[in-house]
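Example record for the data management plan.
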Amino acid sequence: MGLINQTAAQYYLGADGVWNSGDENYGDYQFVSIKDIINNFVIAYVGEDKIISKIKRTDVAFHAQRAIQEFSFDLLPSTKAYEIQVNPSLNMVLPQDYVNYVKVTWVDANGIERIVYPTRQTSNPSAILQDDAGEYLFDGTGAVMEGNPSETLKRFRAAPYDTQRDGLEALTDGDLYNLYRYGNRYGLTPENAQINGVFYIDQLNGIINFSSNLVDKIVTLKYISDGLGTDEEMKVHKFAEDAIYKYIAHAILATRANTPEYQINRYKRELRAAKRNAKLRLSNLKIAELAQVMRNQSKWIKH
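Corresponding structural encoding:
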C-alpha cells in the first residue's frame, strides 16, 4: 500500500482549499515524524525472537528524542533563521530553542546578506556597585549589589563604529583601536578588517549585543536548534531514518544489564556506518554544481 494518503488537490491546496495559504505541508513527504519512528522501531526491533524482547514505549520515546537532539547538531537539517530590525538598545533576544549560531548578517538595500563577525574585545561583566570610597554595596540580604547593564556594555553601545576611512590620519592608536580599526592600517588583523559591524553574545542573559552602526538595520540570525522545540519539529529526514533506529537500538542495549558486550559493539558499529551513510546522503552533492565551483581552481588564492 502506498504511503501517500492524499490527493494532489489536497496536497497543493491544503485543508482550506486555497493555494499557498499557509496551511499546506509542502515537501513534508521527505520526513518521518517521531511518532512513526517510535511505532516502526517497536514493530521491527521489539518482540519475541527479536533483538529486544521487551521495552517500555516511554524508553523508546526517550532515546528517539535523544537521537534527534544529537543528530540535529551535525546531521539533520535543523538550521533556522530569524530576521529582526535592530532596536535603539542594540540587542536581540536569543530564540527560545537556540543552541548555537551559524552566522549573523545584516541585509542591505539589494537584499544581500552582509556577514557580521563576533568580537572578542568586549563583554558584559557583572557590575558591582561601590560607594565613594570604593567599598562594595550590599542589599538587605547581605548580597553584593550589581548594576545592569555594566559600564562596559554601556560604552560598547555608545561607541561609534566608524565605517568611513576619511580623516583616520588624525586619530591616535587608541582611537583606531576603539573604532575597530586597530590592525586595519598598521599590520592587518583580518577579524577587524571589515566594516559590517560586530556582535557578541551574552550567554548568561541570552542577549546578542550589536555595534552602534547596526541600529535600525535588518539583521538575520541563523542558528542551530536541537529539533525538539515543538511536535512539528520532531521529525527525521528519510535519509537518516535508519541511523535513528540504530541509535535507539544501541542506546537501549548499552543501558541494559547483562547485555553481551559483543552485541553492544555490533550495534555501535552499525550505528557508525548508518550515520556515515546518512551524512553522505544528506550532503546533497550535485556533480554539475561541484564542477561549476571547481572551475575556480585555476585562480590564485592569496592568504
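Summary line stored alongside the record: Confidence is low (pLDDT under 50) at residues 163-169.
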